[in-house]
Specification:
Length: 246
């Protein structure tokens, strides 16, 4: 059975009056027979689909893990010399502060009515912001501008966290609860794979200055992930009468 788009899966019970989703598996206040071939029900999602919607986990895992454990310690010594220990703490503090934006991004994307989807516009904007920050970090590395490096780092991680806040909502948007175990396993595997590859590359092959182009390429290649339009249908019931009773 083919996996159908999320707008046919997760929001089959959108309320007619207040626009709020009702319990999954209900429509017009009545239970839907999940075994009767309803168009609002899907088979188990395929592995290719799960890899697609979890693709950003690869770039996020590679960026966050190697940035904090490999890149920033090296840059602290290179840019700040005798103050490298203190400035490393400042760098990590800047990255931590940017995570405070995640609840606001999630709240906003949940209520987005963009024609391009609820998550995709924010993920695209976050990816562009992250790439801008990474490019600025590379420039600051070459010219050894320490104070601007902090600003560039904050911008880059801010963009990544904007993407991550939407990325974590993709599985609840597209995958039914009974298939969430497999989907979560794929999410964790993609994150671990990105971290492993990042440590392998920067531990044996690449220098610090090569990390920033790699981060940009990774976030652009995995963002936005090619998924159906996540905007819920306002009312999948073709009957224009919102009252279920004739």
């Amino acid at each position: 059975m083919r996996f159908v788009p999320e707008m046919d899966v997760r929001y089959s019970g959108i309320g007619e009056d207040d626009g709020e989703p009702s319990d999954l598996g209900e429509e017009d206040g009545e239970q839907i027979d999940l075994s009767a071939g309803s168009p609002h029900v899907t088979a188990q999602p395929g592995m290719l689909f799960l890899l697609s919607i979890n693709s950003f986990g690869f770039s996020y895992g590679m960026t966050v893990s190697t940035l904090g454990l490999v890149i920033l310690p090296s840059e602290a010594v290179y840019l700040y010399h005798d103050r490298h220990a203190v400035m490393l703490g400042v760098m990590l503090g800047c990255t931590g502060i940017t995570q405070l934006i995640c609840p606001a991004i999630g709240y906003t994307s949940d209520r987005s009515t963009s024609r391009y989807g609820r998550r995709r516009p924010t993920m695209v904007a976050g990816a562009l912001i992250a790439c801008l920050g990474h490019c600025a970090m590379l420039a600051c590395h070459h010219y050894r501008i320490g104070h601007l490096y902090l600003v560039s780092l904050t911008v880059a991680v801010f963009g990544m966290n904007c993407c991550y806040a939407c990325y974590t909502a993709l599985l609840p948007d597209f995958v039914l609860p009974e298939h969430m175990g497999k989907a979560s396993g794929v999410m964790a595997s993609m994150t671990i794979l990105g971290s492993f590859l990042g440590f392998a590359l920067f531990g044996f092959y690449l220098d610090v200055e090569h990390s920033y182009p790699l981060y940009c390429a990774a976030v652009l290649a995995t963002n936005p992930n090619p998924s159906p339009n996540p905007n819920p249908s306002p009312n999948p019931n073709p009957n224009p009468n919102p009252n279920p009773n004739p």
